[in-house]
């Protein structure tokens, strides 16, 4: 399944996190944004459970992450 994860950071280290996220096997694309959200990640996972583990274990557990929002793609 495809999902997009929006990330808001506490600090302004978008470039550093962007490069780290791009190295993860689940991440297909990642971009820095202007506005309320700092980054968006396009991820490919097998299930909603896998998405939850990915977000909690690889994104939300970072001290510099303030907030995330996960959007599961329903169709194309």
SSE blueprint:
Elements: E1 2-9, H1 14-22, E2 27-32, E3 39-44, H2 48-60, E4 65-72
Antiparallel strand pairs: 1-3, 1-4, 2-3
Q: Structural class, from secondary structure content? A: alpha+beta
Which fold name fills CATH's third level, the topology of the domain at 1-42 and 62-68? Alpha-Beta Plaits
CATH class of the domain at 1-42 and 62-68: Alpha Beta
Shape: globular
Q: What is the tally of helical segments?
A: 2
The fraction of residues assigned to DSSP E strands is: 35-45%
Query: Largest beta sheet: what is the strand line-up?
Result: 2-3-1-4
Order of helices and strands: EHEEHE
**Span between N and C termini?**
12 Å
pLDDT averaged residue by residue: 96
The share of residues in helices is 25-40%
- Count the E strands: 4
Major sheet characteristics? 4 strands, antiparallel
Q: Which CATH architecture of the domain at 1-42 and 62-68 is right?
A: 2-Layer Sandwich
Characterization of the model:
The chain is globular. It has two helices and four strands. It has a four-stranded antiparallel β-sheet with strand order 2-3-1-4, covered by helices on one side. The chain has helices at 14-22, 48-60; strands at residues 2-9, 27-32, 39-44, 65-72. The protein has a domain at 1-42 and 62-68: 2-Layer Sandwich (Alpha-Beta Plaits), CATH 3.30.70.920. With 76 residues, the chain is of the alpha+beta class.
